[in-house]
Amino acid sequence: MGRVTRRAFTVAALSTLAMTPGAAAAPPPSGGPARAALTEMRGMWLATVNNRDWPSHPGLSAQQQRAELRALLDAAVRRRLTTVMFQVRPTADALWPSPYEPWSQYLTGTQGRDPGWDPLGEAVTEAHARGLKLHAWFNPYRVALHADPSRLAAAHPARRHPDWVVSYGGQLYYNPGLPEVREFVQRAMLDAVRRYPVDGVHFDDYFYPYPVAGRVFDDDAAYRRHGAGFASRADWRRDNVDRLVRETAAGIRRIRPGVRFGISPFGVWRNAATDPRGSHTRAGVQTYDDLYADTRTWVREGTLDYVVPQLYWEIGHPAADYAVLLSWWAEVARGSRTQLYVGEALYRAGDPSQGAAWQDRGELSRHLTLAKSLPQVRGHVFFAAKEVAADPAGALARVVADHYRQPAVSPS
User: Fold this and answer.
1) Does the global pTM surpass 0.90?
2) In what order do the strands lie in the sheet with 142-144?
3) Which of 160, 202, 293, 399 has its CA 20 to 30 A from that of 385?
4) Does residue 55 have a cis peptide bond before it, meaning omega lies within 30 degrees of 0?
């Protein structure tokens, strides 16, 4: 997750984000013999789109940006996390000196302007120096959070190839139905894998965009040209996304074997009322039908090294119960080579707009307790870095005290 940044979806709508000062994490135990490290994912997303987590605003000096980034990495270490999903291509742009796409506007305020340093390169170095894994997080198809191509950098590929672009819901997207688009976005993303010793490649939930009422994603011409042989446009769209995922996985293995590839989808593949293989939920969005992402198949067939479904609801939610979805995803992952981690809505903790369950600082800790009963669950990833650092409701401090007192290393 659509959201401007990610995920804040309830069953059918976007939620607001809130931040207030919070408590520090519980200190690790002192004294006694050292304990062996666990192998589990303890991650955080670090979002850069719209300056969600970093930099705090565009136009800071390189020195200020570095200091803020290091502070967030230090916060991950304090919370005993092991992995950072760092968003390096938020809107068809780059947080490294890419030969394919312009510098991100979220660094300087002007798309294409050189910030005077290499954020991805330094993020990898600084993360590794702290014992953290760094996964480069890419958004494949989003071009802009507005619908005006003239606002893009003059040399932007979307301006050079306007036929690649679809305007939808007030934003610009590359058309996933064009083979030349699929080839280009892979080349642009894999450039970072070739240049830097990243530990993983990470996609979020945006493939075809989230539905906007009364709007049509205009891919008629691409469907006429490339959709022959498919029973429906929906099947063709799913095949387009499948191809991107399979080809990206193969490209990573070819360029840098050992780098892990994972995706964080919206938490509901399909409702059981739509498909008996689906979850007993009543979600307003289903990734298979609305985003054309067959996330269940990617796990069952082992296309991915890991999957992080965004289970951003509380235990007992009437339409999308965390416990129901956790069990469903564990069953999907059973017997697959794809490791299952769980995306956790730290940003909701203490937010008064989120309902009573999220005012209880123990809600997230109970999620981890429940997950421990399912051997398929290999860890958790928290959205997002600002809240990891500030912990506005003390929910992460509770998680650390209850579950992270023993050190851990990331699965490989």
Assistant:
1) yes
2) 142-144, 171-174, 165-168
3) 293
4) yes
